[in-house]
Specification:
Blueprint: H1 8-23, E1 29-31, E2 35-37, E3 43-45, E4 52-62, E5 65-66, H2 72-78, E6 82-83, E7 87-91, E8 94-98, E9 100-101, E10 105-117, H3 126-131, H4 133-146, H5 155-181, E11 183-186, E12 189-192
Parallel strand pairs: 6-9
Antiparallel strand pairs: 1-10, 2-10, 3-8, 4-5, 4-10, 7-8, 11-12
Helix pairs in contact: 1-4, 4-5
């Protein structure tokens, strides 16, 4: 197949789609800025770099201890109390803690999130791009080869690349999970266990 015949706009769209699919594997992770708890305040805004959106909260840590998620009804019940937060719930870029903090604590809440480039961004993080360059390219090639009725369409090659791509996505997911499982938050910094 002659993919080089594809118009630049179509190739750019395929690359963007490939990056989005890869980000759904939770591989693009960032640590949000630490947040200081305030007595009686339950909600905290997560801060991520410009040009990305939060896909998932991978972990919320309070003074180095990982907070848990619980069903909404139980969370709302716990949120009626004041004390040491043990649970979190996310809505957009807001994290709610329960029980509600009784005392203020400086830089006590830290979050690790999976992110993806926003629809309007034209750049991605260099480390992410360099780490996953081949996988991004392979995903774009698959998308192009799978386009129906184009001069570069090739279902046979697309199928071959698709199976390699799915295997590489699985490896990327496992690697990202290993990075997450192998990390703990210590005084505002990510550190290996």
């Amino acid at each position: 197949a002659q993919i080089e015949m594809a118009p630049e706009a179509v190739v750019v769209s395929a690359v963007r789609a490939s990056i989005a699919a890869l980000c759904n594997c939770d591989v693009y992770q960032v640590d949000c800025d630490a947040v200081s708890e305030r007595a009686g305040q339950q909600q905290y805004e997560l801060s991520v770099p410009d040009g990305v959106i939060i896909l998932k909260v991978l972990g919320v840590y309070r003074t180095g201890r990982k907070l848990l998620t619980i069903p909404r009804i139980e969370f709302e019940e716990a949120a009626q109390k004041a004390g040491q937060p043990e649970y979190f719930m996310r809505s957009g870029s807001i994290v709610r803690l329960a029980p509600v903090p009784r005392e203020a604590a400086r830089s006590s809440v830290q979050c690790r999130v999976a992110v993806a480039p926003s629809r309007t961004t034209t750049e991605i993080d260099d480390d992410f791009a360099n780490t996953y360059f081949d996988l991004i390219v392979r995903g774009a090639v698959v998308a192009l080869l799978e386009m129906p009725m184009k001069s570069w369409t090739s279902p046979t090659q697309a199928s071959l690349y698709r199976s390699q791509l799915e295997s590489e996505y699985s490896t990327a997911r496992a690697r990202a999970k290993g990075l997450l499982d192998g990390m703990r938050i210590v005084s505002g910094m990510s550190a290996p266990r």
